From TrEMBL:
Record's protein name: GTP cyclohydrolase 1 type 2 homolog
Keyword Metal-binding among record annotations: yes
Keywords: Metal-binding
InterPro entries, per the entry: DUF34/NIF3, DUF34/NIF3_bac, DUF34/NIF3_sf, N-reg_PII/ATP_PRibTrfase_C
Domain of life: Bacteria
Organism: Tenacibaculum platacis
Pfam annotation, one family: DUF34_NIF3
Keyword Metal-binding among UniProt keywords: yes
Family designation: Belongs to the GTP cyclohydrolase I type 2/NIF3 family.
Entry-linked NCBIfam families: YbgI_SA1388
Length: 364
């Protein structure tokens, strides 16, 4: 079992292409080819977490937050980041981070928040743009069905709740090979016309290598004519935050008590009560003030997130109830999500949930 085996499985639910541009995800310390002795899953990779990994013979730490975020110019051990990284390197411990790749997953951080709140009819709050690509290729008519099926098997043609989606146009292609060519149909040096099918399919960007691999392997021509472009379409099942509904509407005060107990927080900072019951709820793990307007636009009765600043509570404007449960508290179930996902795949392998409290905030 190598680090690559573990991370490939994580990336089935949180492909690195899902991450935001500002983020630092993936393998931060270590080598993908290293054989794994054990995996420790944590929210944050602190020095004490590295110690825990050492004690439990785990040479891979899977962390939600990246310990290296803005880059390191020195490794002198002068701060908590440098000390954790130095200790990991000295003890041959790899560190892998998922962060916004898992934030944007439809089974990730926000989905887990919905699950613990028992929200129903969930959907993505802010669908992600720029994660869908389109492939167009040209293939002899007789080979079109086989190639199309292989592209579907590689993950192309999935759109929302539909699969095997493609657009096909029949026409006549032409080509002439030079003296170095070896044409599948026709002869070198002679102009050839061939009945062809133009196949167009869309796919998620992280599948590009796999899909192009199938294209080159299964396409009959010596030279494959194709183009790949990135679309600006929103991907409805990938993005920040989620929104769902309670089975029955509840009173605002009852809602806030439920939120406090569910997220095990010392306090819930909230906006002014507006005198209406809560049924439709938006959630977003971590710092989520940027999505307040999205929650209002989706007509949510309440929005649960973290790190709201003083003036951001004014944005509620008697239209929504804002609930700040704390950054750690909103993401605390993430490590359980990762452990559950890994243990289902690697049933006879040591996957440990970190016992260290990494929340830097305390309440009195």
């Amino acid at each position: 079992m190598t680090i690559r085996d573990i991370t490939n499985h994580i990336e089935e639910i949180a492909p690195l292409s899902y991450a935001e541009d500002f983020d630092n995800v993936g393998l931060l310390v270590g080598n993908y080819k290293t054989e794994v002795t054990g995996v420790l899953v944590t929210l944050d990779t602190l020095e004490e977490v590295v110690d825990e990994a050492i004690e439990n013979n785990c040479n891979l730490i899977v962390s939600f937050h990246p310990i290296i975020f803005g880059g390191l110019k020195k490794l002198n051990g002068n701060n908590y980041v440098e000390r954790a990284v130095l200790k990991a390197i000295k003890n041959d411990i790899a560190i892998y981070a998922t962060h916004t790749a898992l934030d944007n997953s439809n089974v990730g951080v926000s989905a887990k928040m919905c699950e613990v709140l028992q929200l129903q009819n969930t959907k993505t709050l802010i669908p992600k743009k720029g994660n869908i690509k389109k492939l167009t290729t040209y293939v002899p008519f007789r080979d079109a069905n086989n190639l199309r099926e292989k592209l579907f098997e590689a993950g192309a043609g999935n759109i929302g709740n539909y699969d095997n989606c493609s657009f096909n146009v029949e026409g006549k292609g032409s080509y002439r090979g030079n003296e170095h060519s070896n044409p599948t149909v026709g002869k070198k040096g002679e102009l050839q016309y061939e009945e062809e099918t133009c196949i167009t399919v869309t796919f998620e960007s992280h599948l590009e290598g796999k899909i192009l691999g199938q294209l080159f392997q299964k396409h009959p021509y010596e030279e494959v004519a194709y183009e790949v472009i990135t679309l600006n379409n929103k991907q409805q099942n990938v993005g920040m935050g989620m929104i769902g509904e309670f089975e029955e509407a509840i009173d605002e005060n009852e809602f806030l008590k439920l939120v406090k107990s569910t997220f095990k927080t010392g306090c819930v900072r909230h906006s002014k009560l507006i005198g209406k019951s809560v049924k439709k709820v938006a959630v977003l793990g971590g710092a989520g003030s940027f999505a307040i307007s999205n929650a209002i636009r989706e007509k949510a009765d309440a929005y649960i997130s973290a790190d709201f600043k003083y003036h951001e509570f004014y944005k509620a404007e008697n239209r929504i109830l804002l609930a700040d449960v704390g950054h750690y508290e909103s993401e605390q179930f993430t490590k359980n999500l990762l452990v559950d996902h890994l243990t289902k795949k690697f049933t006879n392998f040591a996957i440990r949930l970190s016992e260290k409290r990494t929340n830097p905030i305390y309440y009195i």
